[in-house]
Amino acid sequence: MFQNTKCECGHQNPVGTVLCESCGKPLDEDLLIDENTPLEMRYDGVARRSQKANPHFIDRIWNFFSSVKIAVYLIFITLLGASLGTIFQQESTLINLTERSEFAAYYKEEHGTAGVIYHALGLSRTYESWWFVALLVMIGTSLVVCSLDRVLPLYRALARQQIRKHLQFITRQQVVYTGTFEGDREAWLAEFGKQLKRKRYRVWQEDGALLAEKNRFSRWGPYINHIGLIIFLLAVLGRGIPSWHMDQYLSLYEGETRQIPGTNYYAKNDDFTVDYYSESELASNQKGTKVVKLYETKARLYECTADCDDPIKEPVLTEVMQHDIHVNSALSYDGLKLYQNSFQEKVRFISVHPSLLNASTGESLGSFDLLMDNPSESYEVGSYQLKLNDYYPDFSLDEQKRPMTKTREPNNPAFVFRVTGPEIRPEGEVYIYFPMPSEKSKYYEQLFNESFKQRGDNTGKFAIKVENPIVDGKMNNIKYSEYTTYLNIRMDKAMPYIWVGAAISMIGLIMGFYWQHRRIWLRFDDDKLSLGGHTNKNSFGLRADVAWALGRAGIEVTPKSLDNRRNLR
Amino acid sequence: MGRYRKAMQYIILAVVLLVGGYAIGNSLFTTSVVLNKGDKPPAFRLAGLDDKVHEWKDYEGKPLILNFWGTFCPPCRNEMPALQKQYEKWNGQGLQLVGINLSEDSLTVESFIRQVGVSFPILLDMDKKTEKAYGLKQYPTTFFITAKGTIQEVVIGGLLTEEEIETRVERLMKSNS
């Protein structure tokens, strides 16, 4: 279909133009029906870039995303989708589960049938689901396309504005003044322009016409906001890049150093404290309950500097930071954050300091340090040598009555030593040692040593035990951890971009919200003066500006009388 | 101007397709740690009881049985002699058997291995790293891996009998030819 888009002023306008780009004459047929209604000034009446007479396939996709209506629908659907994710707990917040079947069982147990449906629909992973990501991508596309389609033509239109506008364009603005004028037009225009300049307008004049404009920059606010939002969205999608995002949990008993999986860092828990409020500090309805005052992990962070991937060698660790982690005070180093998550009261042996004794006299022959994790294999004790033959961290017997360990934790450790040294036979003597001061382990210790003696493996000459195991009611010569702390380890490399995006978005919003783009057009036709004013918001302010400047130039009007829309009603 | 505009349009839509496709693809194919038949097992690099470094690629190209075990797990202990027997029987024909211990102290591992008389390589996992990479839930777990480097079968829990191991070994050796 051929459409004549040439304006009477001679300007060739693109398809879809509402107001002639040059003179401002209304071109849209709807605007021609009633010559008194104020004009639709959106985007200054210019055509969107993508409006075409014969759109082809790519143009149609482009047009789809260019529509603000579609954008609003997309945002609405996304909000609706996002709200679905808040009905039940999301999978990502369930720390200990990893398998689909475990999650399914969890939702079934916690929420019954509703939970089963929720999980089956994939709503337990709403924010990672393909459809939610797709919606975000579509909103992002819509942001880019909508902005580009509008900002470029708008920029062009505002960059080359005609000073003398079509009469209908002026008289159909929201702020209008018309009157007759006698006298020196040029001198009056100069005076009127001067007054507007005092209100910080930029003023252009052209034989018998004037254009005054201020705060055009506020028109770019929404687009700057959109740039910020696009950066924000891209950053959110960037979390999908494996090395950009981490959210995991690490358990550490007191004194333990462990590698943070997936990083070159190691964390150590020096000490964990949990403090409760005393009875006198509690409110009356809390009396008798335990209310936590402080959870604190004294933590150290190490970086591996050498032999990191060598399974044979111990990694070389360099301390990079020390921090007391408590709620709202995370250890933060180079984008890595360690938060206090929870704790468990669990006694765990770290090391003991036993002595080798002469069993008959009780005389100490020397003492040594014995670690529960990776104990060394030989010890020099006085003039004797102890070689560690066997180690069972959690002693038990298997079906064939062979000694074994029940678990990997040193819950009930047992050590088998071969003692060699002066005044004993060259092959030495074998003893078993249970550091745990429980009756059962002491019983086992005695039983095994007795059977070793019967087998001829030892003579019962020695005993291995901790001297003074209890001092002032506390365990002596035994190192143990009372608490295991659980740290939440997070890394979010997208965060700086999210902040930058949010800041740019905020700048755009402020530009658009707190300033208004005001324009005033004026033309003389013989002795007839026509003035039109437009602002994108706060027309009250614009009317006040116009009335003030007119008054200063000798035409007294009330701001109210300038309201074109009001006069119509 | 018009041509430039069109090119811009194509470029923007192409970027959207690329970024969006990546993001959506990422959410569609979230990698699960559970290994199934046909998967390629994750690589490992561990110290052996022989104090040497053992890597996944050292074992590539020949059929391999990868057995995750611990001295604390009775079925693991019980099947160890059967595994050793099968290893002795098939080793000459190219079968490899590797035991990965579940992050125990080397001393504990060594004395058990000595007791049973295991001659195939025993590797020591550290801090459950390899175990996690293989998505282990129960012990023992045994992976039967073909010469092409894909998992033929995953057996969770004890194999117990030599026959049960043997039928699987035969299947594994056949897939080689």
TrEMBL record, chain A:
Organism domain of life: Bacteria
UniProt KW keywords: Cytochrome c-type biogenesis, Membrane, Transmembrane, Transmembrane helix
Major localisation: membrane
Coiled coil ranges: none
Bilayer-spanning residue ranges: 70-88, 130-152, 223-241, 497-515
GO CC terms: membrane
Boundaries of every ResB-like domain copy: 68-444, 462-545
InterPro entries: Cyt_c_bgen_Ccs1/CcsB/ResB, ResB-like_domain
UniProt record, GO biological process: cytochrome complex assembly
Places the protein is found: Membrane
Membrane topology summary: Multi-pass membrane protein
Name used for this protein in its record: Cytochrome c biogenesis protein ResB
Organism of derivation: Cohnella luojiensis
Lineage, opening ranks: Bacteria, Bacillati, Bacillota, Bacilli, Bacillales
